[in-house]
Structures are given as structure tokens and as C-alpha cells.
Amino acid sequence: MRTSLHFLDPHPVGSPVVLLLHGLGANGSMWTLQFEDLMAAGFRPIAPDVPGFGNSPYDGRGWSIRRVAADFVALLRELQTGPVHVVGLSMGGVIAQQLVLDFPEMVRKLVLVSTFSVLRPANFSQWLYFLQRLLVVHWVGLEGQSKLVAQRVFPAPEQESLRAMAAEQIARADPRAYRAAMRQLALFDSRKRLREIRVPTLVVSGGRDTTVSPERQRYLAQGIPGARQVLIPDGGHALAIDQAQTFNQVLLEFLQ
User: Which residues contact 124 (CB under 8 A, 6 or more apart)?
Assistant: First the structure.
């Protein structure tokens, strides 16, 4: 194995592959709640860690969404998977868009979860949140960032264990990769290229997402030919975790 990417591959005999791309600060283990249902349906879930996150090292030579997408395609080709289903949440959804635009022959179906074509806060609260994140990551560091993000994504009192898990994952990230990823996400804009995406596409949104509003996510469904949006009313930004059962049903109905 030549790749330096760390990835989870719990069902190597399954087919086709479902490539699961995690959000900013997380790692491939965030998809654990999807593994069992995907494997039961015969799929092969593969969940890599983005360079600089989890156990995938960052070489310090320039972190970009385009480069990460190419790294994942190199992994798929090394594993000889052929075309795969691609599922991306938040940052993972941005990488997924770049992957299908640059390597359309590698994608069967596309699932974009809690993500965007261009990052534009919908209200003052979101503007303040993103400004806080920018200041904290540069002046306080990842420990402060981890607490800020974890509280925003998992705000309910009963989600304390999820907050702790998210904070621990974010704090482990390579600070260089994290800061570069934030800059890349702020600059990303796929609006003029969405019509180039010609694979079946599903946009999945959480009704309680306070990071990327469902209305902002609707632009993806409107811009990609034939795409549709599904709203999970009680889902937050990390709806694959906080609404895993419902999300898995929606995901499998689309992939099958």
C-alpha cells in the first residue's frame, strides 16, 4: 500500500464502495454509525481521514480541496474499486463536489450532507460564529476551537458525550491543515459549475442546522441537474450522528 492516508475499510468484500468523507475537525470514524447498515446492504464503506486529520499525516506542502480530492481518487485507484458512491458531510461535501467535478468517471452517485456550494452565513448569528472561529483558531488554538465548534454542533444537554468526542477529535488535528482548510472552505465557490455534475445527486439537510442553513443547502439541489433535497427536521449539522437511523434510511433508499 503506497498511500499515506489512514482509512477504515470494515467490509472489504462488499460492492460497490461507498466513500464517506468527514467534516472539518472530524475523522473517518464519524461514519461508524453508518457502517453496519451499509454492510448489511452489501456495500463496502470506506472512510478515510483527510490529510492533517485523524491518523492521516499532512506533509506541510500545501493543503487544498483539489489536492485532497485527488488524494482520495489515488486511494480508490490503488484499491482498484472502480466507480464509487461518494457521501460527504460539510467539508466532506465540498471535497465530494471537487472530486466529482475533477474525476466524474469515478462517481456513481453523490450524497451531499450539511454542505454548501459557497459559504455565506445566512444571519448575524452565523456571521458571528464564523468570525469567532477564525479568531479563535489563530489566536487561541485548536483547544479553544474544539470547544466552540463542539458546543455549536451538539448543543443539547444530553449530547455531552458527543461534545466531548467532537472536541477531542478537533484538538488532535494538525493546526496547519485545520487553518488551511478553513481558508479553503471560505474561498470555495462551485455555483457556476454545479450544472456540470451529471451523476444522481441527493442533498440531505438537517432542519436544526445552525452552521449551514437548509436554505443555503437548497442551492445545491437547484443547481445540480436532477438533484433533490431531503430535510430531516430534527437533524443538526452532524445529522449522520444525531439522527443516524433516519439518515441511514434516507441514504440506503437513494443508493439502492
Answer: none
The sheet with strand 107-113 has its strands ordered as 7-8, 44-48, 17-21, 84-89, 107-113, 201-206, 228-232
Q: What structural domains and CATH numbers belong to the chain?
A: 7-117+190-255 (3.40.50.1820)
What pLDDT is attached to residue 211? 87
Q: What is the pLDDT of residue 142?
A: 65
Q: How far apart are CA 2 and CA 149, in angstroms?
A: 34
Residue ranges, the chain, pLDDT below 70 = 1-3, 121-150
pLDDT of residue 228: 97
Return the closest-CA partner of residue 88 out of 154, 40, 22, 145: 22
Q: How far apart are alpha carbons 86 and 72 in whole angstroms?
A: 11
Q: What is the structure's pLDDT at 122?
A: 62
- Say if residues 170 and 149 touch (Cβ distance below 8 Å): yes
Phi-psi region of 90 (alpha: psi -120 to 50; beta: other; left: phi over 0): left
Residue 164 has a pLDDT of 83
